[in-house]
Specification:
mainly beta, 7 strands, two-stranded antiparallel ribbon, flat, three-stranded antiparallel sheet
Length: about 140
Amino acid sequence: MTTTHPPRTHTPDRTNPDGSTTITMKRACNGCGQLLGDVTEQEMARGINQLPLPDVRRECPDCAPTAPEPRCLPVSTVDGDEACLDGECDHAVEPGADYCTNTGEHTICVTHSEIDSDGQITRAEPWPCKHSPAA
């Protein structure tokens, strides 16, 4: 089933009074490379935080008719107090562990989770993902 996506904004380059140019980053189809429009805040946040970008083939006029559902991608995350995550706490650390015992490791579906520009997960889709064809 093909989902219809609203068209993306296409912000043109702008020449500033000082002669410099302001550009807006564009997103290309990961199937054929066709430019689709401006990147979204979610895509920018994922790129900045070294997370995979979402599959946008269903937004592409050329690829959408045959594009599969986006594949669910598991990613391991760690949660806890900021001091614990930064290694600046006084809690016990198990031998070979990266974090103290007051943190928790979880696996989420990064495809269907939301991440802000600081890398904080604002909505986590648990793994296994309910969107996965195997679910």
